[in-house]
Design a protein that fits this description.
Length: 141
């Protein structure tokens, strides 16, 4: 089909401006949405949400590049690239997320590692730090 300018990704499918689709989208490769989509999107490939796109529903893809609006639940195996002007209102599970200045993210994000488990054990950070010296004197601040 072609390449998407800034994304430098070969596009296999396109839902363009003026199109409104409701249902389930499954694809190989890369798909760009510039119109409206409501439903489920499933792929191991790359999903590109154009600047004027509105997507609402469940998204499960390998890579997501978001310049438009996405609302719902989002699971991305590799990386989310939320770009300037993009709006993501969702609970997100991903291995990597990049949020550019000017983008909006509202929701919860769970980071997963290669085995599908959180990378960090943050429980040790939930306690107040011990600010005393070994000899029992407190630290001066």
């Amino acid at each position: 089909m072609g390449r998407s300018g800034r994304n430098n990704v070969k596009i296999n499918g396109l839902i363009d401006k003026g199109c409104s689709i409701e249902g389930r989208l499954a694809f190989d490769g890369s798909v760009q949405i510039n119109g409206d989509f409501r439903g489920d999107i499933v792929s191991d490939g790359t999903l590109i949400i154009g600047p004027e796109a509105n997507v609402e529903g469940s998204v499960q893809v390998g890579v997501a590049i978001i310049e438009g609006s996405v609302k719902g639940t989002v699971e991305v195996k590799n990386k989310i690239d939320l770009r300037n002007g993009g709006r993501l209102v969702a609970n997100v599970v991903t291995e990597s997320i990049m949020i550019e200045e000017g983008a909006i993210f509202h929701g919860k994000c769970s980071m997963i590692g290669a085995e599908g488990k959180p990378d960090l054990d943050l429980s040790r950070y939930s306690k107040s730090p011990d600010l005393s010296k070994e000899d029992g004197d407190s630290l001066m601040m």
